[in-house]
Amino acid sequence: xxxxxxxxxxxxxxxxxxxxxxxxxxxxxxxxxxxxxxxxxxxxxxxxxxxxxxxxxxxxxxxxxxxxxxxxxxxxxxxxxxxxxxxxxxxxxxxxxxxxxxxxxxxxxxxxxxxxxxxxxxxxxxxxxxxxxxxxxxxxxxxxxxxxxxxxxxxxxxxxxxxxxxxxxxxxxxxxxxxxxxxxxxxxxxxxxxxxxxxxxxxxxxxxxxxxxxxxxxxxxxxxxxxxxxxxxxx
Length: 235
Prior knowledge:
By secondary structure, the chain is mostly beta strands.
């Protein structure tokens, strides 16, 4: 059964606009005050890769432009969304909330043991929500990029169905649905855009420092703890 028919503690799936996700096996994910919520992810997440044609001769500027585009952070938008209901998403202590952005379970995972996190496989499912009309860029900073990546780009944007860890981005921009667009998701009755996916990791415990830019404002410093009880980073 797909997530559209599965009920989870704190999350009520409705439907899903994306294809099956890669690398997210059926698992027990601890939620606030509970031992687990069971969910099968239904959106394959991979890095969308741009294809470039380089001119063999006199290609200096074209090659530089292609290289710049190749390293550009992916953008996921309203058309890439999944759909579900998230009661208390912006007030639950187990979620990481930064303005209009929510990492569901973003604080709960910090209270889990490394063994519990490793039981999820090589990625931890962590839905992202953004309120309508906002644009949020999330960037993993520093050397942790070699140990953690953001896995939210859906399959229909992928060049390959099985990307390697280093093919996944360390930066991604979430652009929510506009005010006049249907999101199919809500948090306490208010429309939000929901992207399924999670954090791919190479080791735990791990403290993942983030820069979060909301609507082109100065970046905010936060951190996602993957079983690291000493993980702290705020601005």
